[in-house]
Amino acid sequence: MSKRETYESRTEELLVPIAEKYGVEIYDIEYVKEGSDWYLRAYIDKPEGVNIIDCENVSRALSDALDAEDYIPDAYILEVSSPGLGRTLKKDRHLEKSLGKDVEIKTYKPIDGSKEFAGILKAFDADTVTIEQEGAERVFLRKEMALIRLAFDF
After folding, report:
1. N or C: which end of the chain has fewer CB within 10 A?
2. pTM flag (> 0.90)
3. How does pLDDT run across 97-121, given as a tens digit for each residue?
4. Of 72, 86, 2, 85, whose CA–CA distance to 41 is shortest?
């Protein structure tokens, strides 16, 4: 397991009881470097959506737990937030919750002249994602997808 994966996994373990206490679910954890700074991001959610108080409560409790455990030697910035409306669907549990919803897919390389596709998420498995576009199903290999996220219109 890489350093990033280890930090994300340990942080998720710390976050489970905190999320239960505050009535939120863990959407995702990521440890990433942007520029010269490291960020530890926890994305939380609940059916009616999270608010600033949810984020503040979870952030304070998680910060205290991280300070107590102190397993990340690098300086980092802790962020706790909602995954947002156009949330990225990284894990199978995200895809499962999004079946029947509008999604956008971006591919690494053009397929039929395009790298961007939109449709209704119909199915997925370990290797593929299927969307419906204008009544026809289209299957994408997961390894060819740079991104899949919920689509939203304003």
Report:
1. C
2. no
3. 999 999 999 999 999 999 999 999 9
4. 72
